[in-house]
Amino acid sequence: MPTTSTTEINQLLSPDRIRIGLPGSSKSEIINGLVDVLAGHPSIDSIETVRRAIFAREQMMSTGVGKGLGLPHAKTDAAQETIAAFATTKNPVDFGAIDDEPVHLLLLLVGPEADKSHHIKILGRISRLVSRDDLRTDLRNAASSEDVLRLLKNGEDALRR
């Protein structure tokens, strides 16, 4: 069932889908590590199908959107609903970003083919959210999954003001 269009980023995440200091020195290692976070989630029918969809999307064009943010994402019927995983990286990673800056923050988004418009709205929302320098810095310095969720919620509250 498609999710509602009012979903906030922090509602797509839970502490078990957030990694602080995700290890990896390459884009593929980081993406694989983030996809692995979704393994066993009840809304994912096949983690390997999700992985292939994420890498296929990445081959079309890098999801390094700039300012240290990577947004690997895909639409696949292996996902029953839109879900996300978030990570800060242990070390900066070359992601082929549009501004040539290495990535420190990642939000992986996967959802069903039928939920395309919601998927696009969420990607736009996270881009607006992390366009704020202070929030990106705070997220990079977050010590726990709970800190990340709190920072994202506060950031989204600020977007509505």
From TrEMBL:
Keywords: Sugar transport, Transport. Residues 11-155 form the PTS EIIA type-2 domain. It comes from the Bacteria. GO terms for molecular function: protein kinase activator activity. InterPro entries: PTrfase/Anion_transptr (IPR016152), PTS_EIIA_type-2_dom (IPR002178), PTS_SugarTrans_NitroReg (IPR051541). Signal peptide: none annotated. The keyword ATP-binding does not apply. This is PTS sugar transporter subunit IIA. The lineage of its organism: Bacteria, Pseudomonadati, Rhodothermota, Rhodothermia, Rhodothermales.
